[in-house]
Specification:
By secondary structure, this protein is mostly helical. Helices cover 64% and strands 0% of the residues.
């Protein structure tokens, strides 16, 4: 492996490792999901489906997207929430006296942009306003898209189950008001919100040496906004 390629893998290892792990787990989910789905078909006395057919099925799509939308919701709320909300002693929080959008000097915007700042950060028009909120906006768009996809694939999977039980299908609007749709959404939302609140509180008192998600091991519990 050349030095340049080795440098690329090392400097992007966090993204590459987690992306690779995502693909492995997604593939494992597909295998397990197909097995479970075929068990349900066998119980109903119906013909089982192949792996390719399952990958393109609404059942697989809804199982995947219901988790994606909750993850993007978590990051959307976290990105926006940490602008104004603080937690004394947590490295996940800004210092208590910096709650809010902060000054242009603090954010290196406009006249305070540096030579290596992104080009839109130094503008004073809509480009700066858009770029200044781009992370939260993209997370919101990803959440809405995945939630919409969940609703579309969810109604197809739900109607498939109803047809197997000789029940009439329902339309998309009725599914949005159904217990199935909200149960799928809320059971993921509550777990994400619990995880965020647990991380914010536990990082006040617990440490992980070398992690930027933790304060330095010797930092006082009251130290806020300090990363290792």
């Amino acid at each position: 492996m050349t030095a340049g390629r080795a440098g690329f893998w090392r400097s992007n290892s966090l993204t590459l490792v987690f992306a690779g792990a995502f693909l492995v787990v997604l593939a494992a989910q597909a295998v397990a999901g197909r097995a479970e789905f075929n068990e349900q078909l066998a119980v109903a006395g119906l013909q089982q489906i192949g792996f390719g057919a399952y990958l393109t099925s609404s059942d697989f799509a809804v199982d995947v997207t219901e988790n994606w939308q909750s993850e993007f919701l978590q990051f959307f709320l976290y990105v926006y929430g940490t602008v104004y909300l603080v937690q004394r002693g947590s490295p996940e929080s800004k210092p208590l006296d910096r709650a809010g959008t902060e000054s242009e000097r603090d954010q290196k915007m406009g006249d305070h942009a540096r030579p290596d700042s992104p080009s839109w950060a130094g503008t004073k028009d809509w480009r700066q306003a858009l770029y200044a909120h781009s992370l939260g906006l993209v997370m919101a768009v990803f959440f809405l898209l995945s939630w919409f996809t969940q609703s579309v694939s969810g109604v197809a999977a739900y109607n498939g189950e109803r047809l197997r039980q000789l029940q009439a299908p329902i339309d998309w609007g009725a599914y949005l008001a159904s217990a199935d749709f909200w149960n799928r959404s809320l059971q993921n939302w509550q777990s994400e919100l619990l995880a965020v609140s647990a991380m914010a509180v536990l990082s006040v008192y617990l440490r992980q040496r070398g992690s930027p998600e933790s304060k330095p091991v010797g930092s006082a519990h009251r130290s806020t906004g300090v990363e290792g």
